[in-house]
Amino acid sequence: MSQYFEIHPDNPQLRLLKQAAQILDGGGICAVPTDSSYALVCHLDDKAAVDALRRLRGVDGKHHLTLLCRDLSELASYARVDNRQYRLLKLGTPGPFTFILDATKEVPRRVSHPSRRTIGLRVPDHRVTQELLAQFGQPLLATTLIAPGESEPINDPHEIRARWQKTLQAVVDAGACPMQPTTVVDLTGAEPLLLRIGRGDPARLGLAATAE
Fold first, then answer.
1. Which residue, among 128, 181, 115, 99, has the nearest Cα to 11 in the 3D structure?
2. Rounded Cα distance, 13 and 22, in Å
3. 193-196 and 183-186 strand pairing
4. Does residue 210 sit within a domain?
5. Are 89 and 99 contacting, i.e. CB atoms less than 8 angstroms apart?
6. CATH number assigned to the domain comprising residue 31
7. Number of domain units in the chain
8. pLDDT tens digit string along 123-166?
């Protein structure tokens, strides 16, 4: 049975988030709110947890997982970023953008793209998620909470609890999230490439709203 934490969205109870962070540190998988939708998260360096996360989500090793970071100083430890990329990252963080970047050696090969050595990174603009990351002390590996065979994220934390309580170790309930995925921008090429238009407005990055 999963632990269920009811968290105030504006004034998060840090003692409860500390408990959730301890569950993650012990290899657990948690459902957490973000500024786009609920996500499944786990410890980056725990292979068993990462494998379990992929099974729960129903994705293989080619599916890009995302690192949730507190800020750009954390992000720089896991991706190689030049001045041009950094300017775009500053425009889009914190916010509902996922940036595809070249991974550093700090990122375990099993969680980066198997052929390209890239990783998705983002800084969520959500108070509860930010406080959880602070309590955890490092980035969390994440994927949108979509059930296998379905196409829409699950947005109701009570439904998440009912459907996943036997497979998740914790659910962090901070109310409903926007049911819209992040906007995904690939920064690994000579020019930014808009891969998916989601909640983040491409104009914020100076990009035309046309996805490849």
1. 128
2. 15
3. antiparallel
4. no
5. yes
6. 3.90.870.10
7. 1
8. 999 999 999 999 999 999 999 998 888 888 888 899 999 999 89
